[in-house]
Amino acid sequence: MKVGIIGLGVMGIEMAKHLQKTGDHEVLSFDVDASAVQEAAKHGTAVAAGPADIAAQAEVTIIAVATGGQVIDVLNQMKEASDAETVAVVSSTVHPEIIDDASEIISGTGIRLVDSPVVFGSRGARDGTLLCLCGGDEADIEYIRPVMMAFSRDVLRVGELGHGQLTKSVNAMLHWAHCVSNFEALLLAKRYGMDAQKLREVLIQCPGTNGTLERWDDTKLTWQEKDMDIVMDLAQKCGVTMPLFGQVDQLVKLITPEDIADLLYGESASYIGHTVSANGVTRTGG
């Protein structure tokens, strides 16, 4: 199958490499960053002139750009190809409203749409073990399945168009809540003199474990602000009160990968203006 990839960042480049490696697909790639295109070309992908060029040639087009605005820009360029007959797969994590806008943009064209954000992050992209959360027509999702399985553990249809993004947002809620709860739980143990990393290894085998805890030493905390902004906007617009996640929204933005490393492997760790160790708790800078 002829497959286009638009957006060759951390996720898109790995998708392109896996697709090319299978030998089952002819891969066209495009990015506004010329160096990213050159990197993809090193792995055997063909270089496209732009989104319209890909839409005119590809049977499946994966959109792996960074923002919702970029998704809209790409689709507006794709529809310039009057003879386009492709399934556009939005693998970017965006607000569900972007998918509504995207559906309107392609209306009346030969472009079909699936929203398919992925989970398991950059490690999953490198290892080819992403999980695709697809919203859209069942036939379209089955059509793209052989393409998406090149870099995925599974391709799941979670509902209608837009439900992929909603599922990703709900997963993000749990993930970032676990980041905060894991941090506070291990911080308490650290204050009482326990080795936080050794305790983490024990807790992974206990009922209180969670997927975030299992992969916590590889969590980059890259997208928490974007993810939680989407979640809180969705809640506000639909009238659902979420006091816990209002706190998670604020707290997770205070935690860095360096803080997690200090908690797991250091002598002390900092959290909300305090430094905690087996020797006690002090105000940071005080």
Q: What does this molecule look like?
A:
With 286 residues, the protein is of the alpha/beta class. The protein has two domains: 2-160, Rossmann fold (3-Layer(aba) Sandwich), CATH 3.40.50.720; 166-283, N-(1-d-carboxylethyl)-l-norvaline Dehydrogenase, domain 2 (Orthogonal Bundle), CATH 1.10.1040.10. The protein contains 13 helices and twelve strands. It has helices spanning 10-22, 34-42, 51-57, 68-78, 96-106, 121-127, 138-148, 163-191, 196-203, 211-214, 224-238, 243-251, 257-265, and strands at residues 2-6, 26-30, 46-47, 60-63, 86-90, 111-115, 118-119, 130-135, 152-159, 268-271, 274-277, 280-283. The strands form three sheets. A six-stranded parallel beta sheet has the order 3-2-1-4-5-6, with helices on both faces. A hairpin with a 2-residue loop joins strand 11 (274-277) and strand 12. Helix 1 (10-22) packs parallel to helix 6 (121-127) and helix 11 runs antiparallel to helix 12. It is elongated. The termini are far apart.
CATH fold-level label of the largest domain = Rossmann fold
The CATH class label of the largest domain is: Alpha Beta
In the CATH classification, which architecture of the largest domain applies?
Answer: 3-Layer(aba) Sandwich
CATH homologous superfamily annotation of the largest domain: NAD(P)-binding Rossmann-like Domain
The percent of residues in helical segments reads: 40-55%
Task: Tell me the structural class.
Answer: alpha/beta
Trace the largest sheet across and list its strands: 3-2-1-4-5-6
Q: Tell me, what's the shape?
A: elongated
| Number of separate domains | 2
Sheet with the most strands, sense and barrel status: 6 strands, parallel
Rg for CA atoms: 21 Å
Low-pLDDT parts are: none
Oligomeric state of the chains present here? single chain
Q: Average pLDDT value?
A: 96
How many E-type strands? 12
The proportion of residues in beta strands is 15-25%
Distance between the termini: 62 Å
SS field, number of helical segments: 13
SSE sequence, one letter per element: EHEHEHEHEHEEHEHEHHHHHHEEE
